[in-house]
Amino acid sequence: MNTLIPEKIWRQCTEKCAPLLALWLLSAGLCAQALAHDFWIEPETFRAKPGVRVPLRVYVGQNFAGDSIPFFPDRFERYVSVGPAGEQAIPGVLGDDPAGAVTGAVPGLYLLALRTKPDKVSFDTSEEFERYLHAEGLERNLARHRERHKPGKIIHETYFRCAKSLLAVGNIRSDATDKALGLPLELIVENNPHQLWADRKLRLRLLYLGKPLEGALVILSNKAKPLDKLKARTNTNGRVEFSLPRRGIWLANSVHMIPAPFFSQYDWESLWASLTFELP
After folding, report:
1. Among 31-45, 64-78, 113-127, which stretch is predicted with the lowest mean pLDDT?
2. Coil, strand, or helix at residue 98?
3. Does the residue 68 lie in any domain?
4. DSSP string for residues in 95-144
């Protein structure tokens, strides 16, 4: 597998952010594991006081361990906070890590969202690509891949990420919930995670282009025990339900892949969704 790193980043960076850029490039190009890594937003705290600045880190890694990504707006399609006052762009300084910060002026639930611009990856062999499909729960694409693939041909894929995080500022209402923000692939918590410890039931919904996505694998992990993963596939309404065994910070992930259009230079397109929240 080979990844292509946008050269425009080099032209925009100064000597000051070169070490951070090197870290970004390293994490983006870690051979066969690069695309399989999780990508998530993690606020410095998931529960803040009104008016307090909360730094945000954007991670690429696995099992809640990885490298934080500096603030590179040239690679962000959309990076916003949606709260009681509406949607606002998340500000930051080029090359800085943490990658921006949010200040909630009034109490409420703030939804943080980051959609990256497309990136590229290639697979040298069909066997490598099929291992990748199995690893990411994308087996439904196997038959189509075997039908389309020509022996000896490199497989090209374009992909982008859709990360969300839930930040509670002050005392939030019991009926405050997550909502769809219009991301191409989006995980949504249908009950308030800050109020659900009583029954420990987490209800998630997965939307693709605004519509429920059936049969997609959703993986849930806790920061304290990241290897103890919970897994379920979405039903016809795009919903899954998990019984949460512990409190703390949780990360949900899902991926969806489709064949690229006929005249595209790629063979496949994939979308990666993540959602972080804290169960107090």
Report:
1. 31-45
2. coil
3. yes
4. T-SS--EEE-SSSEEEEEEEEEPPEEEEESSHHHHHHHHHHTT-GGGHHH
Number of domains in the chain: 1
CA 226 – CA 228 distance, rounded (Å):
6
Number of separate helices (H) and strands (E) present in the chain: 4, 19
Is residue 238 classed as helix, strand or coil in its secondary structure? coil
CA distance from start to end of the chain: 40
Counting every residue, how long is the chain? 280
Residue 109 near residue 168, CB atoms below 8 Å:
yes
Instruction: Please give the torsion angle defined by the CA atoms of residues 48, 52, 58 and 62, in that order, rounded to the nearest 10 degrees.
Output: -30
**45 lies in a domain?**
yes
Give 53-112 pLDDT, tens digit per residue. Answer: 999 999 999 999 989 999 999 999 999 999 999 999 999 999 999 999 999 999 999 999
Residue 181, in any domain of the structure = no
pLDDT value, residue 14: 40
Q: Each residue of 159-193: pLDDT tens digit?
A: 999 999 999 999 888 778 899 999 999 999 998 77
Residue 256 lies in a domain: yes
Degrees (nearest 5) of the Cα angle 26, 27, 33? 110
